[in-house]
Amino acid sequence: xxxKRHYRAFWARGIPVDVIDMDQDLSRYKLLxxxxxxxxxxxxxxxxxxxxxxxxxxxxxxxxxxxxxxDLVHLGGWxxxxxxxxxxxxxxxxxxxxxxxxxxxxxxxxxxxxxxGDYALRDYCSLVHPEGASVLATYKDDFYAGRxxxxxxxxxxxxxxxxASNPDDRFLADFYAALEAERGLLR
Length: 187
Prior knowledge:
The chain is of the alpha+beta class and about 190 residues long. Helix content is about 20%, strand content about 30%. Strands 1, 2, 3, 4, 5, 6, 7, 8 and 9 form a 9-stranded mixed β-sheet that branches. Helix 2 (about 45-55) links the parallel strand 1 and strand 2 (about 55-60). The radius of gyration is 15 Å and the shape is globular.
C-alpha cells in the first residue's frame, strides 16, 4: 500500500518508474525511492551509499534499515549500517498511531523544496535525531511537536531524504514534483 502511494505520485506526473529488487544495478538511476526498507541483505546499504555518493538521490521512510537478512535488529540504533551516515540521522523509536489519529507536518520556512502549508500524517511517527541532516519539516502536534519529520542529508555528490511518518497524497505530489524539477526526471 505504501509503495503504491509513492508510485502513484510519479504516475500522476507521467514519470516512468522501474520496480527493482535489492540486487539491481543502481547506477543508471537518478532517484531511488525505498519506502519502508525494513530488511536489508548484506551489502545493500553500501550499494545505496555508493549510489548517493555518486550523485543519486535517495528517498526512504520510517521503518527502514531496521533489521538484517536474519530479521535481527541492528544494534546501536537504526537505520543500520551505511544508511545512518547516508541519511545523517538516527531513528530512536517508531510509534504506531491509532487508525483515527493524525499528526501534521509543517514545512520549514524557505525550505529547499518549496513545500508550503500543512500536510496530514498518519500511521507512524518516528523520533528522529539529525546527525548532520537538515530539517525540512517538523511535526506540529502532541509529544512530537517540533521534532523532524522530513530531513535531507548531503552525502558525496548526492542527497538522501528521510520521511519519518506516513504523509498524505498531497505531500507526496508536492514532494516528488520538487524532486522531479531538481533531478530533471523527465529529461
